[in-house]
Amino acid sequence: MINDLNLNSMAYFEAVARLGQVAKAAAELGVSPSAVSQQVRAIEQQFGVKLFRREGRRLILTMDGERLYRAATQAFHALRDARATILRQREQRQLILRVSPSFGQIWLAPRLSQFLTQHDGWDTRIDATTDLSDFQTEAVDFDLRYGAGDWSGLYVEPILEDHVLPLCSPAYRDWLRGLSADPLEQISRARLIDNVKGQHPWDLWMTERDIARPSGSTRTGLDRSQMSLQLARDGMGLAMDSVTLAHDDLKAGRLVPLDARLGTVRFPAYWLVCPPRHTNRRVVRLFFDWIRDEAAGFQKQAASLMQDLGLKAQARLDDGAFSE
Fold first, then answer.
1. HTH lysR-type domain location, by residue (predicted)?
2. 89-137: per-residue pLDDT in tens?
3. Phi-psi label, residue 79: left if phi above 0, alpha if psi -120 to 50, beta otherwise
4. In this structure, what DSSP letter does residue 214 have?
5. C-alpha to C-alpha distances, 120 to 93, 113, 282, nearest whole angstrom
6. What count of other Cβ atoms lies within 10 Å of the Cβ of residue 100?
7. Which of 220, 225, 234, 323 has its CA 20 to 30 A from that of 200?
8. What percent of the chain clears pLDDT 90, i.e. is strictly above it?
9. Spatial contact of 64 and 47, defined as CB atoms under 8 Å apart
10. Comparing 93-160+271-296 with 163-265+310-323, is the CATH topology the same?
11. What span, in angstroms and rounded, lies between the C-alpha atoms of 215 and 299?
12. Helix, strand, coil distribution of the chain in percent, nearest 5
């Protein structure tokens, strides 16, 4: 029966037949000579024939051994060819990545057409999810992750800094200014919109400035920047969110900083993440090169926009302090 064949044993037999010595076959396979001899004996017992005869220090194939060797060689060549074809097709034609949902929809999606046009022969799959890839068990080339960059054992490259600040609709800002000229007093009277999975939520922002959370403030927590920005556009509160994701809204005036004097908090936020070996794939290298260029161009646009809005950035340090 074909399911009685042990491919591992056949690989040992093929190596001995090709090299003529058990010791050489063992060295090539990275096992002990006794393990090789045991596997060859198992095949001889299964087939009920002798596969080798000894001439001096070399093992010579018998007629039955020669017949099996030819069949094994053809089979292994076919398997190697199939494997090479599969890997070559995957290398040339398929790219699978995961991306943080809001970043994927707001920032990445509008830019993808250029990349896909340049590489229209590839199959591309993009999963927008907060789930991080398990590269040991999942067929994913890389992640575009939002976070702190602390993923040990993986290739991790920052591609975009983020700038976080209090922002809202122009009408909501004007309403708050009608209540007080003090931006901290305005915050105490506002509905706070929080991105609960963000790296810099309201509580952290207030703690870093020694501001107590207002006892009478109300808060809405959302797990997507896309939703928090929409709520802010609708005039429903004051969002602590991202210049990267709110860029077009800020440029068009749909959203505005609460007060330019509050500045922004700057920190690395978006990362390319994958096992180091994945960076050897041509399609991965090409995507990385493309997105580095896109990110560099966007950083210049964001810096220009913040200058126009009168915003100064402070870099968040590891100890929670700031630098200009």
1. 5-62
2. 555 568 899 999 999 999 999 999 988 888 777 788 899 988 888 888 8
3. alpha
4. P
5. 9, 10, 15
6. 25
7. 234
8. 55
9. yes
10. yes
11. 37
12. 50, 25, 25
- List the structure tokens of 240: 């602590």
The token pair at 151 is: 């993923």
**Are residues 188 and 234 in contact, defined by beta-carbon separation less than 8 angstroms?**
no
Q: List, in sequence order, every beta strand (DSSP E) within 26-140.
A: 52-55, 58-61, 94-99, 123-128
CA 271 to CA 276: how far, in whole Å?
14
Binning pLDDT at 50, 70 and 90, where does residue 312 land?
Answer: confident
CATH classification for the domain delimited by 93-160+271-296, as one of 3.40.190.10, 3.40.50.10490, 2.40.160.20, 1.20.58.1560: 3.40.190.10
Pick 2-91's CATH classification: 3.40.50.300, 3.40.50.720, 1.10.10.10, 3.90.1200.10.
1.10.10.10
Task: Report which residue type is found at 183.
Answer: P
Domain ranges of the chain: 2-91, 93-160+271-296, 163-265+310-323
Q: What digits encode the pLDDT tens for the residues 220-277?
A: 888 888 899 999 999 999 999 999 999 999 999 999 999 999 999 999 999 999 999 9
Tokens representing residue 209 in the block: 């400035």
Contacts of 258 by beta carbon, 8 Å cutoff, 6+ apart: 165, 166, 167, 168, 173, 176, 183, 186, 187, 238
Q: Report angle CA 113, 117, 123 to the nearest 5 degrees.
A: 90
pLDDT band of 322, cuts 50, 70, 90: very low
Which token pair is 294? 């896109």
Cα–Cα distances in Å, from 133 out to 99, 127, 273?
10, 10, 9
- Domain 163-265+310-323 classification at class level: alpha beta
Q: Give the type of residue at 69.
A: Y
Greatest Cα-to-Cα distance within the chain, rounded to the nearest angstrom: 102
pLDDT category at 299 given cuts 50, 70, 90 is very high
